[in-house]
Amino acid sequence: LIRPILKHLSTVYGEESDPYLRALSDYANILTRQGDSDKKEAERIYSRLIDINQKSGDTDALLTDQGLLLNLLIGEDRLEEAEQLLKRHIKSLQEREFSLESIYRAESKLGLIYQQTGRSLDAERVLGRLYQNQVDLQGEMHEDTVATATKLTAVYTDLENHIQAQRFGLIAVNGYTALFGGDHYDTAVAVANLAYAYEAAGDFDLALKYLDSSTDLFRRLGYPRYAATNLNKAGNIFHGHGDYSLAKESFESAVELCESMYGVEHSETMVNKYCLGRSLRFLEEFEEHDVLRQERVRDESVLLVANELHDRFVHPLGEDAC
Predict the structure, then answer these.
(1) Of 156, 182, 276, 283, which is least surrounded by CB within 10 A?
(2) CA–CA separation, 242 vs 279, rounded Å?
(3) What is the dihedral of CA 138, 139, 143, 149, to 10 degrees?
(4) What does the alpha-carbon distance between residue 107 and residue 313 come to, in Å, rounded to a whole number?
(5) Closest CA to 64 of 40, 31, 29
(6) Continuous H helices in 76-161
(7) What is the value of pTM for the model shown?
C-alpha cells in the first residue's frame, strides 16, 4: 500500500521533499518489524535519510533517523556499529543543546551496550553517573530513572557487587510496580533481574521466589521466550542443590515452551532438552541409590531383629533354648 504512495509523493513533490521523506521514514519503521531482508532495506533507507538530513541541515530529522537506525542495530546485536553511531549521536545532541532528557536516554543506551559487550566497569561508570543525574533532574520515580536502575541491577550482578545489585533491583521492581502495576513487561523484567541478583549472591530461596513470580508474569503477558529463560535458570538452581525432581519439572516446562516457539530442533530447545536429560539421569541414579539404601536399611533391620531373637532364645552356653 505504501509503495504507490511513495511513488505519488516522489512524482508530485520530489524525493527530497518533506512529505516524501516522512513517508519514507514511516515505511522504514514498518520494515523493521518484518524479516531480515526487509530490515536490510530499512537500514538502507535510514542511512539515506541521515545523508539527506545532514546535507539539508535538518537537525531534528537527522537525530530522529539516527535514533531509529540505532534501535535497529541494537535489536540485531550489531553492538559495535551501534556504539560508534551512538557516540556520534550523543555528541550531536550535546552540540545542538538538546534537552538533558534526550541526552540521558542516549547515554542509557551506551551503558547498555557496554554491559552487553562485557565492559561492566565502563557500564557502571556511565550508568552510575547517569542515574544520579536523572534523580536530580526527574526524580527517583520517573520512568527513565527506573529504567537505568534496571540496567544497574544487571551491571552490579556482573561485577559481583551483590549489595548494590539487590539495592537497584528492588528500586526497579518497586518503581515499575508503582508506575505500571504488577502486570507489565517492564515489571516482569525487573523482577527477573532481581532474581538473577539474588541467585548470584547465593540466596537461592529468594532467587526462586522472584523467578517464579517473573515467569508467571511473562507467561500471562505473552512472552514465552523469557519465561523459558527463567525456567532454565530455576532448573539449574534445583539441579545444583540435588532436587532433581523439581529440576526435571522446570526443564520440561522450558522444553515445551521452546518447542512451541522455535520447533523441536532449535538451539534453545536442544539446550533445555540437554538439561532435562542431565537431570533425568541424575534423578534415575538418585532413585536407584535410594532403592539400594532402603534395601540396605531393611537388611540391617532384619539382621538386628535376628540378633535380638538370637540373644533371647539361645542358651548362654550356646545350647538352644528349645
Answers:
(1) 182
(2) 9
(3) 120
(4) 88
(5) 29
(6) 79-95, 100-116, 120-138, 143-158
(7) 0.76
Q: Is the pLDDT higher at 84 or at 2? A: 84
Degrees (nearest 5) of the Cα angle 83, 175, 87? Answer: 10
Closest CA to 106 of 58, 71, 157: 71
List the helix and strand counts (H, then E) for the chain. Answer: 14, 0
For residues 62 and 138, give the distance between their C-alpha atoms in angstroms, rounded to a whole number.
Answer: 26
CA pair distance 253, 241, nearest whole angstrom: 19
Contact yes or no for 254/224 (Cβ under 8 A) = no
DSSP-based three-state secondary structure for 22:
helix
pLDDT tens by residue, 97-130? 888 998 999 999 999 999 999 999 999 999 999 9
Cα–Cα dist 279/207, whole Å: 20
Exposure string for 137-176, b = 16+ CB within 10 A, e = fewer: ebeeebebbbbbbbbbbbbbbbeebbebbbbbbebbbbbb
Chain centroid offset of residue 287 CA: 35
What is the percent of the chain with per-residue pLDDT over 70, rounded to a whole number? 88
